[in-house]
Design goal:
With 496 residues, the chain is mainly α. The protein folds into two domains: 234 residues, no CATH class; 238 residues, no CATH class. Helix content is 79%, strand content 0%. It contains 20 helices and no strands. The chain is globular, with a radius of gyration of 24 Å.
């Protein structure tokens, strides 16, 4: 019982801190889309997309490798494994930073358009190097079960980042307007974009300083034999990670190269700003992941485990569709999370939301290859999804612009979800309640269609209609399948 409680507490801290970081990042979008021009936001999105992909290469799957080999206590000492991993990642990061910082002029034409500022690229490279190296001490904290410090540092990072952004992008312009002499020695109004990366670097540096105790207090050593085994073990993880991450950000990477309009930066910025509204679904699914993964392996030995997985899928889709309807029915409120210069791309929100729901269902379905130790199927699905997404983007971005990015992600996630379901039924058949799931989906789509057609000009009347529609979904779907009759308050409510 003590072990279970400890696991639950640690999971709550890891998951809660990660979700809080995502929520803070989501809220900062309100600042960025009001302070930054759409073209600056487009550049920021493009640079952070490179950061996400390159981070996988630099860490080289060594976080997973650390847990894999450090658990073999009869073969390896924990400190020896940790030291070897630190050395490997340190060498990769050092080589990356030297190559990119010293030879940036020769490299940048292959990766970035000429109008992306050099100073922003250099800051992203430094941030990426520090973050990649810091990932190993963070993994070591998890091994040591120091969840509190892990969560504290993640939250500290986002707090420093947020406060720095607000100071540099809101307070400093106000001071510059009223008494510029106070800040003229360090703050310039030429470009606000650079301050996003300066704030990010500040949070990263502060976080890393607190990780210094994890970099000392043990004897550094490097085991060549162990290193070869770890590199061999981790290489497939890098491929899978790259394919999976690329599915999420490849549109932001290739958009500048294939878009045929004059201003790719503004178009990408407008799309990315509205894309962030869909983070509501991502936050919901992230919370689900932290609860679901321990549940899957805990239930593995139970005789009724498959029925449990089927029930979880049913309820997850039920509430996932509720999130979709909640965002779309109240889009007149959610749209204020981005500046009005970005509203022209609001049409991508329902497409992205549903695509993210497909991906979450795919994750839910992935239990079959995780429980059967056939995780290579995850690599196969990631590569298939990546191929679909990049093909559709390359073909249709020149014709349709950023709307092609949303539909490509939608199609890629839908395909891997369907493939995972049918292949999974062969290796690990689970009798999902497809009848109920179909009922939820059809009900949600009908209500959404009604909302689209019954859309009066008056915003208050529109919100009232949509509130009635979402109430219909809740009372129709939740009363049908949730055991509300066992909850006195809910029983009285639904009876009324």
């Amino acid at each position: 019982m003590t072990t279970v409680r400890s696991l639950a507490k640690d999971s709550a801290i890891y998951g809660g801190s990660t979700i809080l970081v995502k929520m803070m990042s989501w809220l900062m979008n309100m600042v960025f889309t009001r302070v930054l021009l759409p073209e600056d936001y487009g550049v920021m999105t493009n640079l952070y997309a490179y950061l996400a992909v390159l981070a996988i290469i630099l860490t080289f799957g060594m976080e997973t490798g650390l847990f894999r080999f450090i658990s073999q206590k009869d073969k390896y000492k924990a400190e020896n494994v940790y030291s070897t991993v630190l050395t490997i990642v340190g060498i990769i990061v050092a080589a990356f930073m030297v190559i990119f910082l010293v030879f940036l002029d020769g490299i940048r034409p292959w990766l970035w358009e000429k109008d992306v500022p050099d100073n922003c690229i250099r800051l992203v490279i430094i941030i990426l190097g520090i973050d990649a190296f810091s990932a190993i001490p963070f993994a070591y904290l998890r091994y040591k079960k120091r969840a509190v410090k892990f969560g504290f540092l993640k939250i500290l990072n986002i707090i420093v980042y947020t406060v720095s952004c607000i100071f540099l992008m809101i307070i400093c312009p106000w001071i510059d307007k009223h008494n510029p002499g106070i800040i003229s020695w360090f703050w310039k109004s030429d470009s606000m974009l650079i301050y996003v990366f300066i704030a990010n670097l500040a949070g990263t540096v502060v976080q890393t300083v607190f990780l210094l105790p994890e970099l000392f207090g043990f004897r550094f050593s490097f085991d060549k034999t162990l290193a070869r085994k770890m590199l061999s073990y981790c290489f497939p993880l890098v491929i899978m990670g790259l394919a999976g991450m690329s599915n999420q950000v490849v549109d932001k990477l290739i958009f500048p190269a294939v878009y045929q309009g004059e201003d790719w930066k503004s178009e990408l910025g407008i799309y990315s700003g509205c894309f962030k509204i869909a983070l509501v679904m991502m936050i919901f699914t992230q919370a689900f992941r932290y609860a679901y993964e321990p549940f899957v392996f805990e239930k593995k030995s139970d005789r009724d485990s498959k029925q449990s997985y089927a029930d979880v899928m049913k309820y997850f889709i039920m509430f996932g569709l509720l999130v979709f309807l909640g965002v779309m029915f109240y889009i007149d409120i959610f749209k204020y999370f981005v500046g009005n210069n970005y509203w022209s791309a609001l049409k991508v929100v329902p497409i992205v939301l549903m695509g993210e729901l497909f991906f979450a269902v795919y994750f839910n379905l992935s239990i079959w290859y995780k429980l059967n130790d056939k995780t290579w199927w995850g690599t196969v699905f990631s590569i298939i999804g990546f191929a679909i997404v990049i093909t559709l983007n390359v073909v249709y971005i020149p014709k349709a612009g950023y709307i092609a990015c949303a539909w490509a992600s939608f199609a890629g996630n839908l395909l891997i979800m369907i493939l995972s379901y049918f292949i999974g039924q062969k290796y690990y058949p689970v009798r999902y309640d497809l009848k109920s799931i179909g009922f939820y989906t059809v009900t949600a789509l009908i209500l959404y269609t009604i909302s689209c057609f019954m859309s009066p000009e008056n915003i208050y009347l529109r919100l009232i209609i949509n509130t009635i529609l979402i109430a219909v979904y809740i009372f129709t779907v939740i009363k049908r399948d949730l055991p509300v009759n066992n909850i006195p308050f809910m029983k009285r409510l639904f009876n009324r």
